[in-house]
């Protein structure tokens, strides 16, 4: 029996490619890109064939036989493997760890029942495959120019669609999609949104506009069955539009012709654990690889993208006006809390504005980026406060659930009846979260229909969607929420936005804090007045003269972004500098720091600056101390070359300290 040898990528943390033997006649070898079941460490696991060879260096007695090739599945395209390889190299991880976890579980299962079922279902698909759009509204001239410019772009064309909130970016995407689908009968389009809660709204728009086109959605709340069905529909080219969250960037799309990244500035595009990739950055690479256009849309672009647009690397398209007739941007006013003392967290100006909306039957949104009732409880008698015993953080009071919760390690305790230190029964909540604001509103406006939307109120599957639907149906007078309600949603009856406690971010050590705060305020302000009624935004602050608030009042992204970029340039920060962050965790801080000191000293490299290790701002989480080491370079290739060598050296140290590397970190 003749044999060939398969080089197979596996999802293992270290070197991830292994050779296996496979019996086959010449000309009947398996194909690169096929999945294969192989024995590994006494288990059977699914791997990806990355090479088929006639020879191997592995000694015969060490060589194992592959078990089964998934030949019913068409191979993953070479370009898809190249994308995974790029991500693996760039983020310094093994190929298998990038390529395999993104595939639906049903594809990776040893048994093929579920896979076969999904393939059968897709084979029977008889949807009309008619890309004719229906019900296209007339675009305004700026929208038309943008849609034509995107729809007609040829070759690699990165486009920044800079459009104020409510300027009708969605309509531009849809009409650009229509042009691409009409031109090419096989074309596929990938649309990414930052949050799962934004998919139903856009999904509805796409289905209404393209009733004859198969749409596949990819996000984390699909069932395994749905997920494999949708993934396969994309992989086989049947789904012409794929809508998803960041994980969809690694889906297989053989005829991809256009990528749209909505709200491109959003930090959710960055994966924060495991393979810490930026879906936006990978999308730009993918568009370049395929020589296709990519649209990055935002009212508050990331400074990276703004910089590229200003320097001419990206084409910039602007929508300066709101799309709905007579709709204008809301009037933003600052409420000086030094003068207007708040009651239950609400200034008299905001209370009056709320009352007015209730009388007129319009909706209001109160934005507070802090869930729970109060961030901490304390004892006035002895000074005890509810620290988490496992983290450098507080236990947050959750009143409806009668619990104290740590938001970092998930520790939960019953609310103590009395102070654990001195026995005082009068424990006080300090500060204010969304639950407390909701409670205060209920007392002040007993007749109003108040709804809170945050991670706690939407824990059950489907509950977030139900909540957003009831806002859209007008069943809510006052909406209280965290960043979950701040972005993307097109609430038509909303005419007032109150921003309760934004000041803390002004003094953060994180150099990105002001960029993020500004974007967040502009986004949440942008929920008001979208359907044409006059609207206002009230920002409650103790720092009314801060330039950031001035820029929000003037809706002046351009100038604010310009001044932040000047600061970054002078301070040698991204996008003018490339960074990587090495993190280490250990039961004792000293161990983590010692590991990082070793890492700092083990490799010298021209053009690379290695800083000293420091404890992370939140040092202890779940009884583990964490420290970090920042590496910087003004050259991306130099940084990449250094990181390759460095990671090899660190792996060879075989330290017991847990460490991880993040390239282009967002939080440092
Ligand atoms: P953005 O994403 O830019 O914030 P949306 O795409 O959500 O804005 O559009 C805001 C509102 O404007 C939506 O209600 C949409 O239906 C409406 N709209 C968009 N384009 C037009 C148009 N050409 N004419 C009328 N209304 C429009
Ligand atoms: Zn006490
Ligand atoms: Zn904790």
From TrEMBL:
Binding positions for Zn(2+) 1 per the UniProt entry: 379, 382, 419, 422
One BP annotation, GO: DNA replication, synthesis of primer
Tagged with keyword 4Fe-4S: no
Pfam families: DEAD, Helicase_C, PriA_3primeBD, PriA_C, Zn_ribbon_PriA
Cofactor annotation comment: Binds 2 zinc ions per subunit.
Gene Ontology molecular functions: 3'-5' DNA helicase activity; ATP binding; ATP hydrolysis activity; DNA binding; zinc ion binding
Domain of life: Bacteria
PROSITE patterns assigned to the protein according to its UniProt record, in alphabetical order: HELICASE_ATP_BIND_1
SUPFAM superfamilies for this protein: P-loop containing nucleoside triphosphate hydrolases
Domain called Helicase ATP-binding: residue spans: 150-319
Keywords in alphabetical order: ATP-binding, DNA replication, DNA-binding, Helicase, Hydrolase, Isomerase, Metal-binding, Nucleotide-binding, Primosome, Zinc
Binding site for Zn(2+) 2: 388, 391, 406, 409
Cofactors that this protein relies on: Zn(2+)
An annotated GO cellular component: primosome complex
Listed EC numbers: 5.6.2.4
Reaction(s) catalysed (UniProt annotation): ATP + H2O = ADP + phosphate + H(+); Couples ATP hydrolysis with the unwinding of duplex DNA by translocating in the 3'-5' direction
HAMAP family according to UniProt: PriA
Complex formation: Component of the replication restart primosome.
NCBIfam families, alphabetized: priA, PRK05580.1-4
Function: Initiates the restart of stalled replication forks, which reloads the replicative helicase on sites other than the origin of replication. Recognizes and binds to abandoned replication forks and remodels them to uncover a helicase loading site. Promotes assembly of the primosome at these replication forks.
Assigned protein family: Belongs to the helicase family. PriA subfamily.
This protein's name: Replication restart protein PriA
Annotated organism of origin: Massilia yuzhufengensis
